[in-house]
Amino acid sequence: MTKPSAKIQGVILSGGASRRFGSDKAVTMLDGRLLIEHVYHVLTSAAHSTVISVQESGRTYPVDAEYVVDEWKDSGPLSGIASAFRATEAESMFVVAADLPRVSRETLQRIAGDFQEPVTVARNADTNRIQPLCAIWHRGVLDELCRYIDDGGRAVMGFLDKVGYHTVDVPPGSLVNINRPEDLHSSNRRE
Questions:
Q1: CATH of domain 9-185
Q2: Got the DSSP string for 51-97?
Q3: pTM score, two decimals?
Q4: What is the C-alpha to C-alpha distance for residues 57 and 83, in angstroms, rounded to an integer?
Q5: H or E element: which one contains 106?
Q6: 17-53: per-residue pLDDT in tens?
């Protein structure tokens, strides 16, 4: 087992168009906080520093973080991950999507405690469903990731299947994903 760097970089992915939600879901309120604030609060407790990956310049949120603009347009979360690596000197990055407001510090500690290169991803302990946007990514994938994106690759799991990954089982309630407005109601049922 390889431990991630003590100075692991946090990256919140907030570059999506939120098409299914209908507006920027990162600024949607849940339990008195914006979705992105939930993720920021937990991620800053687990990472040395945190950046927010956005698709276009000018998108900002009310949190104290630097912003990284995606170098590849319309390339999905992989662009955010690659761009964050290229904008920082981080050896490892804790990648968490802004629409995972129930991720907990314990979940992140569990992933970090069982980190294995090149990528360690969270897996729902009940359903075995993988959540690749709650994971630690190692810089060793960067060159291959850039080639994958340059060749038109967009699928996160397609890339992970190519490079290999390790899974860590986490409590299902911490992987509640907000994609549609109705998901906000189901997220209130903490498991």
A1: 3.90.550.10
A2: EEEESSTT---SSS-EEEE-SSTT-THHHHHHHHHHHS--SEEEEEE
A3: 0.88
A4: 13
A5: helix 105-113
A6: 555 544 567 767 778 888 889 999 999 988 989 999 9
